Amino acid sequence: MGCLCQLNKLQELDLSFNIFEGILPSCLNNFTSLRFLDLSHNLFSGNVSSPLLPNLKSLEYIDLGYNHLEGSFSFSSFANHSKLQAVKLGSETNNFEVETEYPVGWVPLFQLNALELSNCKLTGDLPGFLRYQFRLRMLDLSHNNLTGSFPNWLLENNTIPLESLLLTNNSLKGQLLPLKPNIRIRTLDASHNQLDGELQESVGHMIPNIRVLNLSKNSFEGILPSSIAEMSFLWLLDLSNNNFSGEVPKQLLATTDLRILRVSNNKFHGEIFSSDFNLTNLEYLYLDNNQFTGTLSNVILRIPVLRVLDVSNNHMSGEIPSFIGNMTSLLELMLGSNSFNGKLPPEISRLQTLEFLDVSQNALSGPLPSLENFGGLMHLNLGRNIFTGLIPRDFLNSSELLSLDMRDNKLFGNVPNSISRLSELRILLLRGNFLSGFIPNHLCHLTQISLMDLSNNSFSGPIPKCFGFIQFGEIKKDQNMFGPSIYLWYNLNFHDTYAGHMVKYRRYVTMVLEETEVEFVTKNRLDSYRGEILNFMSGLDLSCNNLTGEIPYELGMLSWIHAMNLSHNQLKGSIPKSFSNLSQIESLDLSYNTLNGEIPPGLVELNFLAVFSVTHNNLSGRVPDMKAQFGTFDESSYEDNPFLCGPLLKRKCNTSIEPSYSPPKSSRESEAKWYDIDHVVFFASFITSYIMILLGFATILYINPYWRQRWLYFIGECIYSCYYFALDARSKLVAYLYN
After folding, report:
1. DSSP secondary structure letters along 364-425
2. Among candidates 15, 60, 58, 23, which has minimal Cα distance to 40?
3. CB neighbour class for 284 (10 Å; exposed up to 12, middle 13-18, buried from 19)
4. Whether the Cβ atoms of residue 307 and residue 286 lie closer than 8 Å to each other
5. CB of 292 within 8 A of CB of 263?
6. Residue range 129-162, pLDDT digits in tens
7. Closest CA to 574 of 597, 601, 600
8. Which of 3, 51, 292, 377 is the most exposed place for a label (fewest CB within 10 A)?
């Protein structure tokens, strides 16, 4: 930028949306004729010193937002800039602070049209100089720590009424005080504060022309006023994460301009898809986590452009209708945690643009349909239903699929080869079914897998050695497969011209795509993971099956895995010494098998191990030293291994009770050692026991004449029975030979 410093008469400078870096050049202070300055969306860093801008008295528009600036900047540096109309200093980092109250009581000469100070570490009350601003059309103070009550005065203070007020993610408290009529306000975002109370009954009449109303993540309560339907230009309404109750007004369900309706996480009830439902232009509908009832009636076909339908976690019932396959614009279909029953209609496979399908935790039954037409599907959740039968051979064919959840159903048979074609799969959950046979080697083709749960099935045979070559959590830093959100931009419906530049103001809505939620047993408890944490979670659960053979040495190569559960099987042999390479392991459960040999002492080097269990095996030798993480484990980690010893178990390790033992080279040799018998001791104990039983029996007959008589009678009966049996057999044999 050195050559720019020579342009002393420069009036307009727009370098926005580039990758310029370094500190702001000091020569900017020489551009005394500069009227328009836009350096936003670059990589500029360092402090914005207050002496840098005082000479720029001709400035009308300045935008330094969304760089890597840091330090503190005094807003009073603009106090004498009488021509200033727009200031945008929004930040994406937490390193830039704007000081607005120093010196105390300063009065500006400017009258702003637009001000953006988002994420600028503002605290306390709203900036005092705003009370001298009477022409504001757009004000963005979001993502700060502003306190106090909702500033109604901002909507009343201006001779030119405010059109956009953005206060999201602050600490404003109290009620949304009664609003006075304002026909100019288009955007009001007070989400993520601490506002409470009820909305005034006439709220729809007070702001009739509003297009974007976001009151989510507060503590509003009560019934939603029916006048809200009078906002005839409403484009986005977000009331999620409050305590609203009652029914959604029928008038609202017939608003024609509404594109986004989000009422998630409230206490609404009633039948939502009634004959009054007529949101013909709706694109995003979020009704999840309420108490809605009824069925999926055909009124939803009145929304031809619907992209997201989320009714999860309600009290919906009935069957999933086959006409759902006609809603071909759907990207997300979320029906989980309701009471839907019947079969999953095969027509659902017509939704070829679908990216997220969740029908979990219902009462769906019958066989699974083929879903191979879902070429772009990313997340599929069929868990916790009553699906039966085999997994279809042509079940899925999506190269984009990241998570597949079919846990807790009644599926049986083998895992089909088609699963191995899901090349991008990160999460595979098949727990709690009746799947059987060997764990197929073709699962090793899922090289990107990070979580695999095959527990509580009937798999048999050995653990595939190739599991040691699966990724299991080894991801690159730039991979974010389960991050939240898409950003939906919308215009704030006004623009201004500064120094000949027309500037359009726009704002984004964070439309969070439904985040995948996964339950996985780790550290002896069932935990739920969702969203970005799934990028870092990894685990393998093969517990509660009928697996046999030795634990493959190759599993010790999974250096990024966090949890491994091989418990409740029939595994034998020793614990592989390679397990000391599981450097990221936090939970290792090998309990309830028939493992033998020593516990590898190298396991004490596992610095993140929080849960370790080898209970109910046949292990022997000294338990690992009580240092590092093994110093946190007690004797419960080693229960029911009678040949283990050490101070923790209060058993001394010496040659009299613990002969030197080296791990067996093969499972056959290992098993043979348990059956080596001293023959002299065996025969001596056997003969002694036999003689003692005979003497005891004879003593009883000698003492008790009744039992002696019964015994002699029994012997006589046996003799006669044998005699007559032999006589009868002889006569039949003679008759057979002579005939």
Report:
1. EEEPPPP-TT-TT--EEE--SSEEEEPPPTT----TT--EEE--SSEEEEPPPGGGGG-TT-
2. 15
3. buried
4. no
5. no
6. 998 888 888 999 999 999 999 988 887 776 677 8
7. 597
8. 3
The answer for residues whose C-beta is within 8 angstroms of residue 279's C-beta and 6 or more apart is 253, 254, 255, 256, 258, 261, 285, 302, 303
For residue 730, give the DSSP letter. H
Helix or strand run (H / E) with residue 223: strand 219-223
CB 576 within 8 A of CB 552: yes
Quote the tokens at residue 576: 């592989």
For residue 207, the 8-state DSSP code is S
SS3 content of the chain, % helix, strand, coil (to 5): 20, 25, 50
Residues 6+ apart with CB under 8 A from 477: none
* pLDDT averages per 10-residue partition of the chain, 739 residues: 73 90 84 89 82 80 91 88 91 87 87 92 92 89 93 77 89 82 87 94 89 94 92 92 95 90 96 92 95 95 93 96 94 95 94 93 94 88 95 87 94 92 91 95 91 95 93 64 54 56 56 63 69 79 96 94 95 95 94 95 93 95 91 93 91 60 43 54 79 82 75 77 76 70
Measure the CA–CA gap between 375 and 365, rounded to whole angstroms: 24
Q: How far apart are CA 306 and CA 480, in angstroms?
A: 27
218 neighbors 193 (Cβ within 8 angstroms) = yes
Torsion region of 683: left, alpha or beta (phi above 0 gives left; psi -120 to 50 gives alpha): alpha
pLDDT of residue 675: 45
Q: Is the model's pTM score more than 0.85?
A: no
Give residue 44's Cα distance to chain centre.
35
H/E/C letters for each residue in 587-651?
Answer: EEECCCCEEEECCCHHHHHCCCCCEEECCCCEEEEECCCCCHHHHHCCHHHHCCCCEEEEHHHCE
Using the CB atoms, write b or e for 605-620: b if 16+ within 10 Å: bbeebbbbbbbbbbbb
Q: Measured over all CA atoms, what is the biggest interatomic distance in the chain, rounded to whole angstroms?
A: 139
Q: Which residues, including other chains, have CB under 8 Å from residue 250's CB and lie 6 or more apart? A: 274, 276
One-letter amino acid for residue 329 of the chain: S
d(CA 603, CA 609): 9
Please report how many Cα atoms fall inside a 13 Å half-sphere around the Cα of residue 661, on the Cβ side: 26
Q: Can you tell me the distance from the alpha carbon of 564 to that of 555, in angstroms, rounded to the nearest whole number?
A: 10
What is the DSSP code string of 75-91? GGGGTT-TT--EEE---
Tokens of 70: 């840091």
Tokens of 416: 């089909």
